[in-house]
Specification:
Elements: H1 4-19, H2 23-40, H3 47-52, H4 54-57
Helix pairs in contact: 1-2
Amino acid sequence: MKEVWMIDVLADLRKYALNNEMSALADQLNATIHVATNEMAPQAGGKAFVGHCADKVRGVL
């Protein structure tokens, strides 16, 4: 799960966008988090990966 840091960074950017009224950017980051999680999951043990990242992707997946 070495790629989890990418989800962390994307989630932090999404949080910043939401806190600064950048809703279009937050929406794009939601989509990006979704794609990244789906593409990383098979390499990281599937649902275990999503479960590990659940706090970061809550409201996205």
